[in-house]
Each structure stands twice: as structure tokens, then as C-alpha cells.
Here is the input.
Amino acid sequence: MLMFSVLLFAAAVLFLAAGLRMRKRGRGMIHDYHQTEVRQADEKAYGKAFERALYVMALSDAAAGTAALLGESKMLLAVSIALLGAGHLIALGMMARAPKKYQGRFL
Here is the structure.
């Protein structure tokens, strides 16, 4: 479980770093074809939507890693995987909703 936790914490750091970089660079990290129809007035909000999703992924990875550190039981492993899966599904939903809101189309 220790190696699982280390991997989750490393992924959390990477997602957090990506979110912080997105905050600094704005929507420049998003592929061009994902932002073709975004109005100039909505550019900041569009980037923030993706930034928040990256923070949710980082938080879910950190929470899952913490749960995995609490012990070796199958129940804690299940909780850890549930936290990881739920957090990533929520974040992916947030990332999928942003183009719909700011471009009028899904992905």
C-alpha cells in the first residue's frame, strides 16, 4: 500500500502543478481545437474551468493516497479506489462540461 500511496501522491503533485501552471498561463495549455469557438470574453473562465478540474483530480489523488496509508485492509483499499475513481469522474465531467458551456458543443 505504501507504493500505491507514493504513486497517488506523485500524481497529485503533477495535477496540482498542471493546475498552477494553467493559472499562470491561462488557456494556453488547452489544445487549439478545444478552444476554437470560445469568445474572447470567456477565455479566462474557460481556462479556470479546466484549472478547477485539475485541482479536483489532485485532491482526489491526495485523499486516495491518504486513505491507502491508513492500513492494509481490503476495505481501505476499496475506499481509496472509490475516492480516486469518484474524484476523477467528477473532474472529467467538469472538463467535458466546459466546452459545452463556453463553445456550445460537447468536446
Q: What stands out?
A: DSSP finds three helices and no strands in the chain. The two ends are 36 Å apart (CA to CA). The CA atoms of residues 68 and 75 lie 10 Å apart.
